[in-house]
Amino acid sequence: xxxxxxxxxxxxxxxxxxxxxxxxxxxxxxxxxxxxxxxxxxxxxxxxxxxxxxxxxxxxxxxxxxxxxxxxxxxxxxxxxxxxxxxxxxxxxxxxxxxxxxxxxxxxxxxxxxxxxxxxxxxxxxxxxxxxxxxxxxxxxxxxxxxxxxxxxxxxxxxxxxxxxxxxxxxxxxxxxxxxxxxxxxxxxxxxxxxxxxxxxxxxxxxxxxxxxxxxxxxxxxx
Length: 223
Prior knowledge:
Elements: E1 4-9, H1 11-17, H2 20-29, E2 31-35, E3 41-46, E4 58-63, H3 65-70, H4 72-86, H5 94-108, H6 113-120, E5 124-126, H7 136-141, H8 150-159, E6 162-164, E7 169-171, H9 178-183, E8 188-191, H10 205-221
Parallel strand pairs: 1-4, 1-8, 4-5
Antiparallel strand pairs: 2-3, 5-6, 6-7
């Protein structure tokens, strides 16, 4: 199985497929939803490490601005369970191992130990609260302004570097792009397309988000 995946979550897709991509995120992490009597997700429960037939997979979640606005409750639940997983001492826990490694790098850069630990647990990223779009679409079309698609990757990483976690909501780290740090090592990027009402090439959003993720990862890791 892969060790690290990136997901791009859209609100329109979530409403059409009723959370299939979200279920893939939870399945990768080794987490199950707990529903209330009305069918709403009340909490996210960590599945014991011995139960799945594979190790947990670390994830990085990029949300669109509209997703951030409409699915705030699920994002908070997901952020909370990822932070619990990052602190869980169990054999082969890649979420914890990756968080510990990033925390060490942040401390070497001058961050206090507790703040480095908290930042290393962030896995949800998007625009600054109140901001919409990536700027990748406009920059792609304005191709006279750049010679290398690394500039598109940098645009994507810059605009979507705001982390969403239990202790901070929409936080940008001065002098450090935490989104970029978390994307290092991602082996595949995943985005849902559950309707053919619009073709994959008839709107800019697929290349803006899935393309942006792919470009960013290639820019960071070379592949």
